[in-house]
Amino acid sequence: MSGLSTSRRRLIQGAGVGAGAVVAVGAGFAGGRASADAADIPATDDGELVDLNVEHAFYTGSHQAGIETPQQRHTVFMTFDLTTTSKQDLQVLLARWSAGIAQLQAGLPVGSVQPTNPSGVPGDTGEAYDLGPASLTVTLGLGPGVFDDRFGLADKKPKLLADLPQLPSDRLRPELTGGDLSLQACADDPQVAYHAIRDLARLGRGTVNTRWTVMGFGRASAGKGQTTPRNLMGFKDGTRNVKEPAQIDEHVWLDGTDGEQAWMSGGSYMVARKIQMNIEIWDSSDITNQEQVFGRTKGEGAPLSGKKEFDTPDFHKVVDGKPAIPPTSHVALAAPENNDGIRILRRGYNYTDGINDLGFLDAGLLFVAYMNDPDSFVKLQTKLGGSDKLNEYIAHIGSGIFAVPPAPKKGHYLGEALFA
Which of 420, 419, 402 shows the shortest CA–CA distance to 87? Predict the structure, then answer.
């Protein structure tokens, strides 16, 4: 799934303690810490180096990692339903998850992998014990259900957090929609991302049930300084993504003003969509049609009004009496120039679920985006869903919206202000 090194030898230092230790903020674990020599840093197909020892801090006191963080190559995204009506149970879960995420992002287990008692149950499942941090980030989201009548938190509900309205071209499946909580694990080793979600879900047993999940590969949007990747339709994806810090400050982060909850300052909103692609139909389409659908060339990724990928699209240019970039192309409909300056930070991944019941490829895009106003996504998708030439080849089958709280300081936990 990526150009990962075949040599994963690591020096293990120490052993972990039981998972039960994650019941309080900052609960400690003695655990194995991965290390590697330079030979374990592989080059990927596009020439970028992947250092499996990169570690992202959890206790920053500002923004959660996994949003502005340079996008890793793999993700596991999972949503959960709360099975409790106890505010204390929710509080303990968020504290346990925070302590666990801090350990995982440091490349440490969440409990003992090798219990000294022969009848002891390992506190950590162990499949990432010797793999290192691999740039892991885990980002928590709170769905609208957290603020319903079950927990008495209605007065803490983020101002703009609400279920998304029905949008044009939606073909949402109930089993792929919603969720009280979400976890997005991203890493440069797929097994590290999988392990994080697996063990955090395990820590939540008795308080949450899993709802829907997507395993993504091959990032489908570009961050600052990254080569623009391609989606499963073969086109570059994320050329004009929000990348610069000033843009991210303007369009992504909340600052506690305009009536927003003060505890959300430094946080954001996340929209996740599972978008199925009709791969076989797309693959039978000629290149001219494909480029007219996207408004870009397939090879270079240039707008049809230009020659290079990063040429600014010229939506007024006419060729042979017609707009060079069709008004119903994906580029034209999504461009900030045509949407009153609306921008969102995309963090998408390709996915595949194998073969569907008709014998066709079951694959598409896990679309994840961050913004400081969910209406930005609603406006864009209303426009795209109504007119985008791409709609012939895709269907939005899964959806969720979540408030993303800021990162805690050491000694605190995600969402702690909810219980003040």
Answer: 419
Query: What is the spatial distance between Cα 287 and Cα 72, in angstroms, rounded to a whole number?
Result: 30
pLDDT-based confidence at 371, cuts 50/70/90?
very high
Residue by residue, DSSP assigns 198-251 as HHHHHHTTTTEEEEEEEEEEEE-S--TTPPP-B-TTSSB--TT---SHHHHHHH
Residue with tokens 């259900």: 145
Please state, in angstroms and rounded to a whole number, the distance separating the CA atoms of residues 347 and 185.
Answer: 12
pTM metric for this prediction: 0.89
Residue 29 and residue 52 in contact, taking contact as beta carbons nearer than 8 Å: no
d(CA 58, CA 110): 14
Q: Which residues contact 255 (CB under 8 A, 6 or more apart)?
A: 265, 266
Identify the CA nearest to 75 among candidates 415, 346, 287, 284. Answer: 346
Count of CB atoms within 10 A of residue 321's CB? 5
Tokens of 257: 């003003």
Distance CA 14, CA 31 (A): 6
The helix (run of H) or strand (run of E) holding residue 370 is strand 361-371
- Residue 345 CA to residue 249 CA, distance in Å, equals 11
Q: How far is Cα 234 from Cα 283, in angstroms, rounded to an integer?
A: 10
Q: Name the nearest CA neighbour of 418 among 401, 405, 407, 399.
A: 405
Q: How far apart are CA 314 and CA 262, in angstroms?
A: 41
pLDDT given for residue 48 in this prediction: 61
DSSP label of 277: E
Rounded to an integer, the average pLDDT of 161-169 is: 94
pLDDT (0 to 100) of residue 338: 97
Q: What is the DSSP string of 300-366?
A: S--BTTSSSTTSPP-TT-EETTEESS-TTSHHHHH-GGGTTT---EE--EEEEEEE-TTSSEEEEEE
Non-local CB neighbours of 212 within 8 Å, separated by 6+ positions = 78, 79, 175, 176, 177, 179, 274, 398, 400
- Three-class secondary structure of residue 8 per DSSP: coil
Supply angle C-alpha 244, 137, 241, rounded to 5. Answer: 25
What are residue 367's DSSP bridge partners? 273
Euclidean distance between CA atoms 34 and 107, whole angstroms: 6
How many other CB atoms sit within 10 Å of the CB of residue 236?
22
Q: Report the interhelical angle of 87-105 vs 190-203 (nearest 10°).
A: 150
How high is the pLDDT of residue 257? 85
